[in-house]
Amino acid sequence: MGKFEDRLWRELVRRHGPDLAQMTRPAAKRARRARPRVVAGTSFALAGVLAVLALVLSAASSPSAFAVSRNADGTVTVTLQQIAAIYKANAKLAALGIRARLVEVAPGCTVKALPPGAVAAMRLAESAAGHPAPQVAIAQFDPRKIPPGKWQVIPTYRVAGTVHVEKAHLMQGHAPPCFSTIVAPPCRVRPMTVLRSGHLTQLTPAEAKKRAAQALARYRAAVSRRHSTSADAGNSGSSGSSGSSGISAGVQIPAPAATWVVGCYVHGSPGHPPITGNSGQSGNSGSSGNS
Amino acid sequence: MLGDSARERAAMPGRPSGSALAEFEQVYRGNFDVVMAYFARRCAEPQIVADLTSETFVRAAGAFGNFDPRRGSARAWLFGIATHVFAGHCDQAANGRDAVARLAQRRALDVDESEELAARIDAERAGRELLGRCARLPELEKAAVELVDLAGLTSKEAATALGVSSVALRKRLSRARARLRKEHQGDG
What we know:
The complex is a heterodimer of chains A (291) and B (188). With 291 residues, chain A is an alpha+beta fold. Chain A has helices at 3-22, 26-33, 35-46, 86-95, 116-127, 205-229, and strands spanning 66-70, 76-80, 100-106, 137-141, 150-159, 162-165, 169-172, 178-180, 192-194, 200-201, 259-262, 265-268.
């Protein structure tokens, strides 16, 4: 049993342990699939009689910890009093067939950055921590407005012993197990191409490729000239070089534009490692001008 | 390799005997090596192998409620996820999408883990060579050879993982083996 295997298992247990511990396996899941239809049908039939039909589905063992209710207008209200009740509330949402999940905001979470709106709300909650705060957090949303393939995620956090929920967000694919309080650093929106020389360009891929080819031709010419005129060929001396190319006589010059830069991070293509002087740093090592 | 699959099936109960967590641990322990080997045959970078293996099991843990052992073995189910994870990795690597999110999820490896992963990657050298020989085969035949002859899945499990019928997979596998044999004899 390897060290990495054990560490990954611990991470899995930390993230998914509570969900797995409460998970019902497929045989029971089939029975659960019928429940949303029953609930929806019931609320639909009584909608004309009752102004608001709240079908509260809270755990019998902890009636005040959470509640999931479907309203007459088709919306769903989730009431949460304890952060630990997230898993039970999510289990109820799953049982109802609703693609929405409460997601805890946890400082140690490294899965996703918290949406900016949630950060602002959290700061507000922190500043208001000394004032009387509601004892329960309430989220209301319309499950019919959740597009296919997307999930409604509701950031949930606790400040000064009180649970808060933030405006729900739609996310592609499954809801993450948690949100981080660390916001991703401000990054450039548009992908950029970085050349082997360390130069960056914000051109389109086709334009970047063309420029890269021109730059490579110029670079090769410069290297061959240097090689022919000077014996000291180890120093490339080209402007803005990141130092990754390490050109010397007789060395094959690598093809440019093998690495993508997205935002502040560098991501290497398969078979083309990221530029060493630039990888993982928040800034760009080379000059930002085009070659 | 086939012994591994038998061990995995023996470790994986047909129906849950305890909590889903205990069941998932059996799936995890019984398949960790083969899933990591699958990525080690494709990538020589320990960090990438670690990331892809982690992502596969994270997705598997999240979707374990949907796994039905009556529809196929856990190994076939995991290889289906691993195939998607690797396809996603190639897609992202090609166009740079979601690189920020991917890097944010990276697990920093310590020296021991890096060495352990490097050893596993090295151990898959023969597998990589065989995959290299399969490079000219159609994708499905290549995948069939890898899952059955390298990863030790049964043809039925491999068919489940690849989303094709067992008959189609056996046919493709037979064709691929014949081509490889012919090429090998040609080389000899």
